[in-house]
Write a structure and sequence with these properties.
The chain has about 290 residues and is an alpha/beta fold. Helices cover about 40% and strands about 10% of the residues. The longest helix is centred in the N-terminal third of the chain and has 21 residues.
Length: about 290
């Protein structure tokens, strides 16, 4: 799918195999936007693994107009259990790569996370001071702070919960429900889900636009995981009576799951869709 790196490519997708990176590649291709991407896969046209020594990175020698940094260890449990190891990738290596790309003339777009806010912040906006209470959020915020301080044209994008039929949660729900076994999603843990195609369309609008700074992407409302489970079962034609509710060890509120998207709305054509609309869009694909 990728050609060799060329001077005319306006996009470099760092981490093209992940959920966001692969969705960006598909959307850019659909829109006719030339792009190239890095991958951890050996033999890829531009092989780059943030866990490897920096000297082994294959970084394009030609300048890129836009480099979208998607590669990261995104597992919350992985970051909590190995804060030093994951920080080497999510913070140290990401900053080093961003600096190298900027030195080559690239403008930087960093995919951050809503986890820079704690679960007790209600509807945080792009100007709300972050206060992460998770290791993953702290690692992402460290990169944000570096880029914003050093590069005036940098763009920081914080999406809410990105959902996909490939998520292990959905696969597990499908496995259990089709086996006529119950699932127990939390009734007091909320999410503001966004479908990959809506996220990537907006990321490209921001990346190729002129405005810099921080941008949020979120659904217009939030639902509980229990409500999401009922929605999932209904859309798949499965027995909703098997969707039993349970309580989360660390509950939140609907407001804390939603991001205020004031700047994103102002500078792009983004209009937040409802949680159910995003779920429907994400579930259009079949679960493998």
């Amino acid at each position: 799918m990728n050609a060799q790196i060329s001077d005319s490519d306006p996009l470099l997708i760092v981490g093209m195999d992940g959920l966001v990176g692969s969705s960006l590649a598909l959307e850019a291709t659909r829109l006719g936007i030339p792009w190239n991407g890095t991958s951890r896969r050996h033999g890829a046209p531009c092989q780059l693994d943030l866990a490897e020594p920096h000297a082994k990175w294959q970084i394009p020698t030609s300048s890129k107009s836009v480099a979208i940094l998607c590669a990261a260890v995104t597992g919350m449990e992985a970051c909590e259990s190995d804060p030093q190891g994951t920080a080497l990738i999510n913070t140290t290596a990401t900053i080093a790569l961003a600096d190298k790309l900027a030195d080559q003339g690239a403008s930087l777009v960093f995919i951050s996370t809503s986890r820079v806010f704690p679960p007790w912040f209600e509807n945080p906006s792009e100007i709300t001071p972050p206060a992460p209470n998770t290791e993953y959020g702290r690692q992402k915020l460290a990169v944000e702070n570096h880029l914003l301080a050093k590069y005036p044209t940098a763009k920081i994008i914080r999406p809410a919960k990105i959902i996909s039929p490939h998520l292990p949660l959905f696969k597990n729900w499908l496995h259990l429900l089709t086996a006529n076994q119950p699932i127990h999603p939390f009734q007091d843990l909320f999410l503001s889900p966004v479908a990959p195609n809506f996220v990537t369309r907006t990321i490209l609008d921001i990346a190729l636009g002129t405005a810099s700074g921080i941008f949020h992407i979120s659904a217009s409302d939030a639902i509980s995981y229990h409500q999401a489970g009922l929605h999932f079962a209904s859309r798949r034609g499965l027995d909703c009576n098997l969707v039993d509710m349970s309580n989360a060890p660390h509950p939140n509120t609907p407001g804390s799951a939603i991001l205020s998207c004031t700047r994103t709305i102002e500078f792009t054509g983004f209009r937040p869709l409802s949680a159910s609309e995003n779920l429907d869009a994400a579930l259009l694909q079949e679960i493998p």
